[in-house]
Amino acid sequence: MSSAFPVICILHSLIAMTSGALMMFRMKEIYTFTHGNETATILMGSTPQDQLLIRTSDSFSGLLLFAIGWLIFMVSFIKDGEFQYFFAKGCTLLHVFMAIWRVNFERRVEVLAWDWLRA
Hints:
The chain is an all-alpha fold. It has helices at residues 4-25, 27-35, 37-43, 48-75, 81-118.
């Protein structure tokens, strides 16, 4: 059993729960910080219905991330070394796939936002 496993899990759970809480309550500020003011305005929607739909989607995504953080926090207290190895391999694979997907998705959003600005 590795003593680093609980530390890494608790660190990841804190990051996930903090990010989830920010996504639920401060998404406009995150959009502004990551994409700039003009793109953030576009990403938040143009009609009240679009804005409500986007805010609801962001809130549910944040809630899911918060729940995943809570689950990882609970997993950090499991003492079985075989389970820790299995869980660590799965998390590593998940991180790689999410990074690839996120980079690809963000690139497409940026291209779409610049196309909207030119129109």
